């Protein structure tokens, strides 16, 4: 049973399971670094997953699917932005509302359009994303011992490579560009940014829109690439796991990647463990399903301690009069 | 006299929530139009289904019983400055306590076993709330994330337990056998047995009175006792509370345990009162409704009782709507719930500037 932990299938599955977490975690990173707490990652991802599956089926094109998903996800972001930035409402409450709205709407609209109780029809091959194979794939794959491990880095949907590319892009953009610097400043000390004559609201809206875009990608990956259709509640807590990864990573892009890979690995191992026997006793599937959530709790409780959120996160900005 | 810039109390607790609710209804209507339905007709079906008959009312109150418990659960945590999204899991886990006592202590007379089963429900719910509270207070884990994770954990754990522990051998349905000892009677059964009178079929049971008593008890606890005062002090300003000799860590754990215990009372209404057995997913989202109920009721027990009735109306109406219109499923209720949380929670200040301008025009 121990080959499960390091088999090429598990490692390759780790990459695939990590992608929605990485994208959602980066979304949370952008949003929270600007001072907007985003509990609604889950809902945005779910809304995007539904939109992508529905639009993908309608247009028979993955590209129109992802564009529609991003548009819907950004729409939800804007609601959250309006509530948190203009109305100075409670950001956690707004996020909870978005999660419910997305979960309910996806099923109600899905049932109305496809009459399958909230599911969408399976997507045909032409509505899926192209798969990338690295050069020389066939030659290396035939080498015994090494060949199977090639599937870890090769043969994934293009969205996978985009997701992992976005990690260094985010790290660089936040650390080394003027926009990134201002964005981080607005999450730490919005008054200072305001005094410098830069609009706090505009910066925060930009961050929230970027978060929407990334959640759109995450949702598209879930329904179009990973599953091939939309099923109700398919995000299954990934948005919250991404938030946990973000806390665990202390709100930085590279550590967030490692945290997400860890969670992805746990999910991958969980998938492979179904039906596996330890000392002749089958591990109940419910315990395997529980594993990522238990690990999230354990990791949050045991390993952080010095995790410091952006100082102004969750606090609405009020201009002094 | 109210201070300048401050709205009169009746506007604050009356007009603003009503305007926000109206806005949520307008948004709901848009969704109905989106699925090509007449919103007025749909809302009328919902209203008639919930308050147009004795059966509708009894279901409304049955749902409201659950929502009073979960609403109080969210409110108590809120007063301590905590956002407990885990009511769902706490209520589900509490079913374990109700079932263990209810199924194993049947030989005891009902005046003993019913209080014991209620107590077990409270304790199991409290435990499922206390652990995230402990992790927040002592380990700095974020309460929102932990309670959400505990919802997922409870969900898997209960599937396992009901399937492998509680399901009688040979039974197909994944549920426990009937709880006969700790049996809380429904009004229908009482009417038939003691008054020889027929009431429409409904799961409404005596727990509804417990809900009202508990609502009063929570009010008394929060505003009339020392620990309640300390809890609110921590919620308002935990740093200031430290200087008053209050230990926020302790209060966080106590508040979460009480909060979880309140959610646990849902098990009394469901496992002991309505279903008389432990069912899969019997909480059915009541934990999340509690968030909306607490927001709408302004975290005050009186408001929560009223808001819980409104959501009872929404749930019963939604069920009737899904019967009347085949293509609308019950998830429409979740959408409406989301809109209510959005407009009454996150966007609650939307009308305030306009109302303030309206009320203070003459003086300015």
Features:
heterodimer; A: 321 residues; mainly alpha; two-stranded antiparallel sheet; 68% helix; 2% strand; B: 73% helix
Describe it for me?
The complex is a heterodimer of chains A (321) and B (364). Chain A is an all-alpha fold and 321 residues long. In chain A, strands 1-2 form a two-stranded antiparallel ribbon. In chain A, strands 3-4 form a two-stranded antiparallel sheet. Chain A has helices at 3-6, 8-33, 41-59, 62-86, 91-114, 137-141, 158-176, 178-188, 190-195, 200-227, 238-248, 253-273, 285-302, and strands spanning 131-132, 156-157, 277-278, 281-282. Chain A has 13 helices and 4 strands. By secondary structure, chain B is an all-alpha fold. Chain B contains 15 helices and no strands. In chain B, helix 4 (87-104) runs antiparallel to helix 5 (110-139). The longest helix of chain B is centred in the middle third of the chain and has 30 residues, at 110-139. The relative contact order of chain B is 0.20. The model of chain B has no long low-confidence stretch (mean pLDDT 90). At the A-B interface, helix 4, helix 5, helix 11 and helix 13 of A face helix 6, helix 12 and helix 14 of B.
Number of strands of chain B: 0
Major beta sheet of chain A, specifics?
Answer: 2 strands, antiparallel
What's the rounded overall pLDDT mean of chain B? 90
How many beta-strand elements of chain A? 4
Percent range for helical residues of chain B?
A: over 70%
Main sheet strand line-up of chain A? 1-2
Give the terminus-to-terminus CA distance of chain A.
66 Å
Low-confidence blocks of residues of chain A: none
Which pair of protein chains has the largest interface, and what are the residue counts? A-B, 51 and 48 residues
State mean pLDDT of chain A (0 to 100 scale): 86
Largest sheet of chain B: none
Bin the helical content of chain A. Answer: 55-70%
Shape of chain A: globular
Quick one: overall form of chain B? globular
> Hey, roughly how much beta strand do the residues of chain B contain?
under 5%
């Amino acid at each position: 049973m121990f080959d499960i932990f390091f088999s090429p299938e598990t490692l390759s599955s780790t990459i695939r399971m990590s992608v929605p977490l990485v994208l959602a975690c980066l979304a949370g990173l952008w949003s929270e670094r600007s001072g907007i707490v985003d509990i609604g990652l889950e809902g945005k991802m779910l809304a995007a997953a539904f939109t992508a599956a529905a639009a993908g089926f309608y247009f028979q094109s993955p590209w129109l699917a992802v564009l529609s998903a991003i548009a819907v996800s950004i729409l939800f972001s804007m609601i959250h932005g309006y509530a948190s930035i203009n109305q100075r409402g409670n950001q956690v409450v707004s996020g909870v509302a978005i999660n419910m709205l997305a979960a309910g709407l996806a099923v109600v609209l899905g049932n109305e359009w496809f009459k399958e109780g909230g599911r969408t029809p399976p997507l045909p091959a032409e509505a899926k994303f192209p798969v990338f194979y690295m050069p020389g794939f066939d030659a290396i794959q035939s080498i015994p011992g090494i060949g199977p491990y090639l599937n870890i880095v090769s043969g994934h949907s293009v969205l996978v490579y985009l997701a992992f590319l976005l990690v260094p892009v985010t790290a660089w953009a936040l650390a080394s560009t003027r926009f990134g610097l201002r964005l981080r400043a607005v999450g730490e000390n919005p008054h200072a940014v305001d005094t410098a004559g830069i609009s706090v609201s505009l910066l925060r809206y930009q961050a929230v829109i970027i978060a929407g875009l990334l959640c759109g990608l995450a949702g598209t990956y879930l329904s179009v690439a990973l599953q091939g259709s939309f099923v109700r509640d398919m995000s299954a807590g990934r948005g919250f796991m991404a938030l946990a990864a973000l806390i665990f990573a202390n709100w930085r892009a590279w550590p967030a990647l490692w945290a997400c890979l860890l969670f992805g690995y746990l999910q991958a191992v969980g998938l492979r463990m179904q039906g596996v026997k330890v000392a002749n006793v089958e591990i109940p599937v419910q315990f395997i399903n529980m594993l990522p959530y238990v690990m999230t709790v354990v990791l949050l409780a045991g390993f952080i301690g010095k995790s410091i959120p952006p100082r102004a996160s969750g606090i609405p900005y009020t201009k002094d009069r | 006299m109210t201070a300048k810039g401050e709205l009169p109390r009746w506007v604050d607790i009356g007009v603003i929530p009503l305007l926000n609710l109206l806005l949520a209804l307008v948004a709901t209507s848009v969704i109905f139009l989106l699925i090509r339905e007449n919103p007025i007709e749909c809302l009328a079906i919902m209203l008639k289904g919930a308050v147009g008959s004795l059966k509708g009312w009894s279901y409304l109150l049955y749902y409201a019983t659950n929502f009073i418990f979960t609403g109080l659960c969210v409110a108590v945590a809120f007063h301590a400055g905590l956002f407990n999204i885990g009511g769902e899991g706490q209520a589900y886990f509490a079913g374990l306590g109700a079932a263990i006592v209810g199924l194993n202590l049947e030989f005891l007379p009902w005046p003993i076993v019913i209080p014991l089963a209620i107590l077990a429900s409270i304790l199991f719910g409290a435990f499922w709330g206390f652990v995230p509270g402990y992790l927040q207070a002592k380990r700095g884990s974020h309460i929102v994330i932990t309670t959400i994770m505990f919802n997922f954990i409870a969900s898997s754990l209960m599937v396992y337990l009901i399937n492998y522990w509680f399901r009688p051998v040979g039974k197909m349905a994944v549920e426990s056998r009937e709880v006969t000892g700790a049996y809380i009677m429904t009004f229908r059964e009482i009417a038939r047995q003691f008054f020889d009178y027929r009431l429409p079929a409904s799961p409404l049971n005596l727990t509804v009175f417990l809900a009202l008593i508990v609502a009063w008890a929570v009010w008394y606890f929060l505003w009339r006792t020392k620990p309640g005062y300390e809890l609110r002090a921590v919620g308002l300003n935990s740093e200031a509370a430290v200087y008053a000799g209050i230990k926020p860590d302790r209060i966080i754990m106590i508040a979460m345990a009480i909060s979880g215990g309140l959610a646990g009372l849902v098990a009394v209404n469901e496992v002991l009162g309505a279903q008389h057995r432990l069912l899969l997913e019997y909480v059915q989202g009541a934990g999340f409704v509690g968030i909306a109920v607490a927001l709408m009721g302004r975290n005050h027990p009186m408001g929560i009782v009223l808001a819980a009735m409104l959501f009872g109306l929404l749930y019963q109406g939604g069920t009737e709507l899904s019967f009347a219109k085949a293509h609308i499923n019950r998830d429409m209720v979740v959408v409406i719930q989301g809109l209510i949380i959005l407009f009454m929670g996150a966007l609650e200040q939307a009308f305030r500037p306009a109302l303030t301008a309206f009320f203070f025009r003459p003086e300015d």
